[in-house]
Specification:
Radius of gyration: 31 Å
CATH architecture of the largest domain: 3-Layer(aba) Sandwich
Number of domains: 3
Number of helices: 22
Largest sheet: 7 strands, mixed
Number of strands: 29
CATH superfamily of the largest domain: Succinyl-CoA synthetase domains
Structural class: alpha/beta
CATH class of the largest domain: Alpha Beta
């Protein structure tokens, strides 16, 4: 999207309000009052055929009648009239905010109405926010183009929300917490202007430092990943994503489909894009406040100063499993702090100033801790002799450039004034240590990700492979099959560097071939019998030709018309699962982890979204739930990380080149740590 495409929408010099009114309780009345009474300096036009004069100004019958170029039209009329309003109005403006409800959110009729509106916008290069939205607010410009009351403080947080009600609640909370907004934007049904379009606009907005989003769904996952990955390198994106408890859609025909719930994939997608995910409303607000007030910690070392031993212990506990850590203070620093404190005080980190600490002790400790850490947190409980306000001023006076200064004032009315002072001076306060450390840790991780150089995934010449795959799939579809046979799948996987070892196929009516090396396994190879062990479709440990003939005959009797697959019995060591799940939002997702019959019991699986470089795949594997296999464990040799990385890279290439497939399972993939090559002994490609 062009840099300035949406500026005339969000920074309009002229606005027409379609459906403007002076009747109490009407949305059109609220919008007209918000724009005319809260300080907006641009030109305002009222449109409503029921009035000739409105608010002492001429009121037009239609948008087209204005006969002047207008930057923005805000439409609040019954849904059935919206399409005609836009058709008439596009003669004078390209930008619309559709407040009206009655579109895809109400069912089939509304969805058709929305489709027609979208096509009109697409063909005529219109920008439409909504429909079914609250509108938007730009506080610095005193523009409240919504039906939310009042004007929030101007600031550097852009908040984009699918819920208008949540936007109103957040603005109310922000007012009491002394934070402000560059934009508050309700996207409603996000028919055209969706989260990706707004990310691009806000990335270039100089007033915006952090972008916060409340999303219930993502319209175009692949586009979102591409845009968010680019924008997150410029400024932080914090997203509160609803739908964690939504029942995961499970593909009955595939292990992989049953493993990957939609919320797990959202986590992977956000991590890949560099998005900071908030777990709940409190954390969302904590993160927005922290980022609004400070820069990301420059290193992971944290110093904590407290007047309460218990609070210090809670703070210490909060660092568990975090990337930020309590700093090891140099002996010289500890000795200097010790010289300023009572004998009973502790100079270990957290530094315990004792319950009777005054502002002088805080001042001495904060000055000496110095600037070798990335973050200094002052923890306080309002004990009887604690001069809370004076300590808050000392914290402010000891702010150090390039060091994050934060506070955890635990209490109620006795700390309220000091917290107000801290926030007024851009020092974030958290209600408890756990929330402080959680927010700081996520901000630190974002800062480190921003500094990381992008590693580019290797591109391959895929035209020949894609053609071969397409031919095999087309032939299977002509046979009305829902999955490829093993021989077909093995041939395809070989082209992507995934070996399946030796095998023999026996079609219906044939007898077993002569095999010289035993033992072997015989199993059904069918698109209708995917989980063979559940259906007694596998016969193991066949030791000679006579037993093989008998086993093949038994399978043919039990599964008439089906093809039989014969493979050498391979010594098991570790069984892994590989798979591709087609997520309805983000497309192909790679699944890998502990395999075999207990895959869905232990759920030791991990998810990736292509593309990824070899270096990033290795890092992902080593940090995964099965990373211990590739690092060696209790004297055992490590499994081959290079080989497994190439296998995952091949699977990613397959997923990227064949996006229309329904899914893939390799379960199990046998891997070894004694020099033998990995082998995919069961492959199912769902078409």
């Amino acid at each position: 999207m062009q840099k300035n495409k949406l500026e005339s929408l969000f920074l309009p010099e002229s606005i027409a309000i379609v459906g403007a009114s002076n009747k109490k309780g009407k949305v059109g009345t609220v919008i007209a009052d918000n724009i005319s009474k809260l300080g907006y300096k641009g030109r305002i036009y009222y449109v409503n055929p029921s009035y000739k004069i409105l608010k002492l100004k001429r009121c037009y019958d239609s948008l087209g009648e204005i006969n002047k170029n207008i930057d923005l039209a805000i439409v609040s009329v019954p849904a059935k009239f919206v399409l005609d309003v836009v058709k008439d109005g596009m003669k004078v403006t390209k930008n619309f905010v559709i407040i009206s409800a009655g579109f895809s959110e109400i069912g089939k009729e509304g969805a058709q109405r929305e489709k027609e509106l979208y096509e009109l916008a697409r063909k005529n290069d219109l920008n439409i926010l909504g429909p079914n939205c609250l509108g938007f607010i730009v506080p610095k410009n005193k523009l409240n183009a919504s039906f939310a009351g009042g004007m929030p403080n101007a600031g550097n947080i852009a908040f984009v929300s699918q819920s208008g009600a949540l936007a109103v609640a957040l603005m109310d909370k922000a007012n009491g917490e002394q934070i402000g907004f560059s934009h508050v934007i309700s996207i409603g049904n996000q028919m055209q202007l969706d989260e990706s379009e707004l990310l691009e606009y806000l990335a270039n907005n100089k007033e915006t430092k952090v972008i916060g989003m409340y999303l219930e769904g993502i319209k175009n996952g692949e586009k979102f990943l591409e845009v968010a990955k680019r924008v997150s390198k410029i400024k932080p994106i914090v997203i509160l994503k609803a739908g964690k408890t939504e029942k995961a859609q499970q593909a009955i025909s595939s292990h992989t489909g049953a493993l990957a719930g939609s919320d797990e994939i959202v986590d992977v997608a956000f991590e890949k894009a560099g998005v900071i995910r908030a777990n709940d409303l409190d954390e969302f607000f904590d993160l927005l406040t922290l980022i609004s007030f400070t820069d990301a910690p420059r290193n992971n070392k944290v110093a904590v100063v407290t007047n309460a031993g218990g609070a210090g212990v809670l703070t210490t506990d909060a660092f568990k499993n975090k990337k930020i850590v309590l700093a090891e203070l140099p002996a010289k620093i500890k000795a200097e702090i010790k010289s300023k404190l009572p004998m009973e005080a502790s100079v270990e980190n957290p530094i315990d100033l004792l319950g009777d600490a005054d502002e002088v002790r805080y001042d001495d400790a904060l000055k000496i801790v110095g600037s070798n850490v990335g973050t200094i947190i002052s923890v306080l409980t309002p004990q009887q002799q604690t001069p809370v306000e004076k300590i808050s001023k000392v914290i402010f006076e000891n702010k150090i450039k390039n060091v994050v200064t934060a506070a955890v004032f635990i209490g109620g009315t006795r700390v309220a004034g000091a917290i107000h002072f801290l926030r007024g001076n851009r020092i974030p306060n958290f209600s408890d240590p756990e929330r402080a450390i959680a927010a700081l840790n996520k901000y630190y991780e974002w800062g480190e990700l921003k500094k990381r150089k992008e590693t580019v995934s290797k591109k391959t010449n895929s035209a020949a492979r894609k053609k071969n795959v397409a031919q095999v799939i087309d032939a299977a579809k002509k046979d009305n099959r829902s999955a490829l046979l093993f021989a077909e799948a093995a041939q395809i996987m070989q082209q992507y560097g995934i070996d399946s070892g030796e095998f023999w196929s026996v079609i219906s009516g044939e007898t077993a071939p002569e095999i010289s090396k035993y033992p072997v396994v015989a199993k059904i190879d069918s698109d209708t019998v995917l989980h063979k062990s559940d259906r007694q479709g596998v016969i193991l440990n066949i030791k000679n030709q006579a037993d093989l003939l008998k086993s093949v005959s038994t399978l043919q009797q039990n599964f008439p018309g089906e093809q039989i697959l014969i493979q050498p019995m391979q010594q098991k060591q570790i069984e892994l699962i590989l798979g591709i799940k087609i997520d309805e939002v983000f497309g192909p997702v790679i699944v890998y982890g502990l395999g075999g019959i207990y895959t869905e019991v232990f759920r030791m699986v991990n998810f990736m979204i292509a593309p990824m470089s070899q270096a990033d795949i290795k890092k992902h594997v080593l940090e995964s739930k099965i990373g211990f296999l590739f690092q060696g464990l209790r004297g055992q040799a490590a499994y081959d990380l290079e080989e497994f990385t190439l296998i995952l890279q091949g699977l990613m290439e397959f997923a990227s080149e064949n996006k229309k497939l329904s899914g893939l399972d390799i379960n199990p993939l046998f891997v070894y740590n004694d020099g033998r090559n990995a082998s995919a002994v069961d492959i199912k490609i769902i078409i």
